[in-house]
Amino acid sequence: ERKIGDEFEKILLHNEQLNAQQAELRAEAFEEKKRQIERSTREEVKDFLRRTEEELKNRELEVEQFIEMSQNYVTPENLNQKLLDALENPLDLEFAIDTAGNVYTGNKTKKYLEEFLSIETKFSAESAPCVRTGKLEPKEIA
């Protein structure tokens, strides 16, 4: 019986050693997995920040392009100047090209004469809301 008890103690000790080794291996595997997750998370965050910064730069460039383009828009403030510019630089899109490559232009647009030009800058109180909204329906007069 004593021999069986000693052998049992020996087996229990060996089992505890195996359990300790397995626990250590599990802890190492857990730490490695944790480091791997931290690395991948860091990489994902860096990638997200890089993409976000790139998108922000693209948006800023797009806004700058829109601002640059908007300088040529016709607004109520620059309407008269745009009309005068268009009249100063007439554009004739009527032309023909024959098979030999000769270009035949349409009628030359005549330059305007300022004495015949009348550009109104003010709207009447009744027509101003119609002009600004684009609604051309006359208001009912009470």
UniProtKB/TrEMBL annotation:
<keyword id="KW-0687">Ribonucleoprotein</keyword>
<keyword id="KW-0496">Mitochondrion</keyword>
<dbReference type="Pfam" id="PF14943">
    <property type="entry name" value="MRP-S26"/>
</dbReference>
<feature type="coiled-coil region">
    <location>
        <begin position="13"/>
        <end position="69"/>
    </location>
</feature>
<keyword id="KW-0175">Coiled coil</keyword>
<keyword id="KW-0809">Transit peptide</keyword>
<comment type="similarity">
    <text>Belongs to the mitochondrion-specific ribosomal protein mS26 family.</text>
</comment>
<keyword id="KW-0689">Ribosomal protein</keyword>
<protein>
    <recommendedName>
        <fullName>Small ribosomal subunit protein mS26</fullName>
    </recommendedName>
</protein>
<dbReference type="GO" id="GO:0005763">
    <property type="term" value="C:mitochondrial small ribosomal subunit"/>
</dbReference>
<dbReference type="InterPro" id="IPR026140">
    <property type="entry name" value="Ribosomal_mS26"/>
</dbReference>
